[in-house]
Write a structure and sequence with these properties.
The chain has 313 residues and is of the alpha/beta class. The chain has one domain. The chain has 9 helices and 11 strands. The strands form 2 sheets. It has an 8-stranded mixed sheet with strand order 3-2-1-7-8-11-9-10, sandwiched between helices. Strands 4-6-5 form a 3-stranded mixed sheet. Helix 1 runs antiparallel to helix 9. It is globular, with a radius of gyration of 19 Å.
Amino acid sequence: MTKTRCPDEKWLEEYRTRMPARNTLVTLEIGCNKALDSMSMLRTFTKDPRYRKSVWMHATGLNDVKSCGVCGQCSVDPVIHSESAAISSYQHHCVEPLPTTFRALKKGHRALGLSASTFVLRNVAVTKSGTKPFVYFPKDSRPGKESIGLRETRTIGLVPVPAISVDKYVANFAVEKVDILLIDTEGNDANVLYGASRTLRAHKPFYVIFEYHKVLPWRLMKLKSLIDYMDDMKYECYWAHNTGMLFQITHCWHPHYDTHTWSNIACYHRSDKLMADIMRRISRESCVYRLSEREKGNATHFLTWTRPAKWIV
């Protein structure tokens, strides 16, 4: 899994260029941090060149040496595909619980005069259903810091942030449709998905991606349980590789996959035939490449974590 930390989501890029025309498209990004992925999605789906990472980072005041994050997200803006299908209305919900980071996002939003109905900012913590009404975050942490997760008890130097599940977020803020669900919550990703059961069933977002690692509460949870849950919700899930390859997890399980290593897992809903076609094809191509590398004796490098080839074919 060590080569799935910063995936190259080629499947999503291909989907963008091939997707049919639609009236609306809504992305719900849980844990948007500095909103660099938000900028990419807004630029791609609105085809508005004003959404540029460098301009955004300057406007927010987050343009220091650590701003690009572990995956270097601030380096390149996505290409705007003029030939891709038109979307009448795109909406991106950027949900960020860390108070200092959220203030920086609001500053950039105001400075650039961005549309509040297109680029929606919310300062709430998203977690499982039935949690406490507030969780706590440092009141004076460095804006944009990526390694801070939620805590459910008060300690010195922390401030309360409203806690809510995805299902309650969608209901409370009258989100009519969720098409894409992006999750990066420093260890709380499984709880976010467990708190999204009604949304996953009713809205059927065609694409979901989340992180998996050893940070609490992930450390105490089993990936197999979440994969089975997503399977029940009609999702096929894959290890999302840094090189743009996909390796299937759903119905290809092995106990080794419950090793808690920082990884990303991408899933599509089975009702979306285009995304299913794209991700299945890339997965087949990835398996063929992997097997050819093993035959060449290249068992080291990125292929070792999958162990025997029979596990994924």
